[in-house]
Specification:
The protein has 24 helices and 13 strands. It is α/β, with parallel strands linked by helices.
Length: about 675
């Protein structure tokens, strides 16, 4: 009888641990998406909420079991304050820095960045500290590897659940309802009112947002549709609070000074029979292509919701024409997979709205503006074909960068046409005779180096890290030190775990490199990113399962395998992987990405199991992972491939310290780190 009750208790703790871990990761992903859709300042620091979540979860795990029960009782309050506060003071774009490029002009709203960003960071950290504390207390009730196993299974569940609601296009209120149900289950009957009141207020606020006229959600954006006129019908599409596209009738699109017609006017000898439109959006460029007599139009659009809106509302109904073939995909990925030759390829204003010079996180269009992308487009042109691109550029050096890249690829300067609001159209034929220019591009000054697949930062003028980032990242690291100290971990006590610190930093960089690699090989779509994160979790889980079945591991052998897999990943060039057919490319990408992760987590799990003071070890790993998040910005200077060298150096230093420090048996059960919030 006692054995049965004991098994039931253990199973109950396991399932609650899974639920807590799933809730933690689901809420982290939801906050990243939702807050970024309402506060454009977060476009400056796209990993801001991730670092805040990471800090909070780490602090939650560091709080001793006998302390901090109050933060569990009031867990939903900071979440409700964050959601209601952001909805009350949403922030839109403003042009305030020469390092920041925007392709639209809107008025600023909300509180200044110096108020908004610290408030969001601290509230996120408190929210995640509360849920981290709930998770940690459940973890301590199980044997460490068994608990870590269910923690990982919960993380997988949370990641897959958010991927599902993204695929379904569920509105924000659905995310809130899911989080509310999970938190109410975790809080139990004793906290039903304490949890229920703030969570009800949060869901009510999200319901008001969801029922606002014209609001819908895509896997990438919060989209708002606003009618501009009825005769003729015109609409404005705003994404994440920024005007993004206008649905316009064909008569407007074909006006003499319209950017839409320049690609056709400047290639008069082109047949314009087969046309590829990358960034098809609501269908404006597709409608123009059909009006120019195209027999086939491949319309590539990464966001399914934008295409759906165009299919429903565009007055020319371009997506209903049988000549149009829609591809919901990343533009670069489409170029890598198709063998079709086109008379005209149009890069039709593809941008992710708010673009920060030097943002370490990849933008949706980053790999469309590299020299290799222009070469891929060139390879898909038929004889006498042409390539065109246009956008609202805010700096002349940006036009020079793109035009110079085209000149290098095609062997001659492109046509350039400028319009109001810094709009520019670049058109280049396969030969000079395949284009007819009123004006040929000439550089306005020193030409910046072309963006490439290793450094896909077209909006960064020089190889540098903007001082704004350096200041903010320094402040985050300082807050982390204070938070770890306040949680009861003395900084000096973490010194013996310098190797854990270095492994945390190395793993964060390794995860970043894998996300970037998969984005290049398979596209910057939400599905690819979700699968990468799920793949990381599976690799970590596999390492834990292997470690559970081994009495001891051969550390020198594991270290040799780790450095061997890192060396292979560094030596294999990206273009070699891209040249493979899809099955081979997938196999190569998975092997190159996840083999080092598997080896690294075997080493980490073994080291943590032998730590005399697991709390201090985990604190050191937390600081290291945050440091790795800051080191990610080195890619702005070095490129992404060089990050593997930094990863190898960090792991090498960790292994050397580990060997000289010796290995002592643990005196207590180790505390784990939360994968994806602290995934090493």
């Amino acid at each position: 009888m006692k054995n049965t009750e004991s098994r039931q208790k253990v199973n109950s703790v396991r399932w609650r641990l899974m639920l807590a871990s799933a809730t933690m990761l689901f809420l982290e992903l939801a906050l990243i998406r939702w807050a970024g859709a309402n506060v454009v300042h977060l476009s400056y620091f796209s990993n801001f909420i991730l670092l805040g979540s990471f800090l909070g979860i780490g602090v939650g795990f560091l709080i001793p079991a006998t302390r901090g029960q109050w933060i569990k009782r009031w867990a939903p309050v900071p979440l409700a304050l964050l959601v209601i506060g952001i909805l009350a003071y949403p922030v839109q774009v403003r042009q305030s820095s020469g390092q920041v490029l925007y392709f639209t002009t809107v008025k600023a709203t909300g509180l200044p960045a110096w108020v908004t960003l610290p408030a969001i960071f601290l509230l996120t950290a408190v929210i995640m500290a509360a849920i981290g504390k709930i998770t940690a207390d459940l973890f301590r009730q199980l044997p460490s590897l068994d608990a870590y196993r269910y923690d990982l299974l919960g993380s997988l569940t949370g990641s897959a659940s958010f991927a599902l609601v993204s695929w379904l296009g569920a509105p924000s209120v659905a995310w809130g309802v899911i989080a509310t149900a999970a938190l109410l289950l975790l809080g139990g009957r004793r906290n039903i009112l304490r949890y229920g009141i703030p969570l009800t207020a949060m869901v009510a606020a999200l319901l008001a947002e969801t029922t606002t006229t014209g609001i819908s959600w895509s896997p990438y954006y919060k989209i708002q549709l606003t009618p501009l006129s009825t005769h003729p019908p015109e609409y404005r599409i705003s994404a994440n609070g920024v005007p993004h596209q206008n649905i316009a009738p064909l008569s407007v699109l074909l006006q003499q000074d319209s950017p839409y017609r320049q690609a056709y006017d400047q290639t008069p000898r082109n047949r314009h029979t087969r046309i590829l439109v990358i960034g098809a959006g609501n269908g404006n460029d597709v409608a123009v292509a059909l009006a120019q007599g195209a027999e086939r139009v491949d319309a590539v659009e990464i966001d399914p919701r934008l295409q759906q809106i165009g299919a429903q509302l565009h007055p020319s109904k371009p997506y209903e024409d049988p000549r149009v073939h829609v591809h919901i995909n990343d533009g670069r990925a489409f170029l890598e997979r198709t063998n079709t030759k086109y008379d005209l390829v149009v890069l039709a204003l593809p941008d992710s709205l708010t673009l920060v010079a030097g943002a370490s996180n990849l933008r949706l269009e980053s790999y469309l503006f590299t020299k290799q992308a222009f070469e891929a487009a060139h390879a898909h042109l038929a004889p006498h074909g042409a390539f065109a691109m246009y956008n609202y550029y805010r700096q002349s050096w940006l036009v020079d960068r793109f035009a110079s890249s085209l000149e290098d690829v095609y062997g001659h300067a492109p046509c350039m046409t400028t319009f109001a609001q810094n709009a520019a159209v670049l058109v280049t034929g396969m030969t000079p005779g395949d284009q007819s220019c009123k004006r040929i591009w000439q550089p306005s000054g020193p030409i910046p180096a072309a963006a490439n697949d290793d450094r896909p930062f077209p909006y960064l003028l020089h190889r540098s890290i903007p001082t704004l980032y350096l200041g903010v990242l320094g402040a985050i690291l300082l807050v982390t030190l204070l938070a770890v100290r306040l949680a009861g971990v003395r900084i000096r006590s973490t010194v013996p775990y310098t190797d854990m610190f270095l492994m945390g930093a190395a793993f964060m960089l390794l995860e970043t490199k894998n996300v970037i690699g998969f984005a290049l090989y398979f596209g910057t779509t939400w599905l690819v990113n979700a699968l990468v994160f799920i793949g990381v979790l599976l690799a970590v889980l596999a390492a834990v399962e292997v470690r559970r079945r081994l009495r001891q591991v051969n550390q020198p052998l594991l270290q040799l395998l780790l450095f061997g897999t890192l060396a292979v990943a560094w030596l294999v060039p990206a273009h070699a992987v891209l040249s493979l057919p899809f099955p081979g490319r997938l196999a190569a990408a998975v092997t190159l990405a996840f083999a080092p992760i598997f080896c690294a987590n075997l080493i980490f799990s073994d080291r943590l199991a032998l730590a005399p003071d697991p709390t201090s070890a985990f604190g050191a790993n937390l600081l290291g992972a945050l440091t790795g998040g800051a080191l990610e910005y080195l890619a702005l200077v070095t490129g992404y491939q060089a990050l593997l060298l930094v990863v190898a150096l960090l792991y090498l230093a960790a292994c050397v310290i580990m060997r000289f420090a010796g290995r002592r048996p643990a005196t207590q059960s180790p505390v784990p780190h939360e994968t994806r919030a602290s995934v090493q």
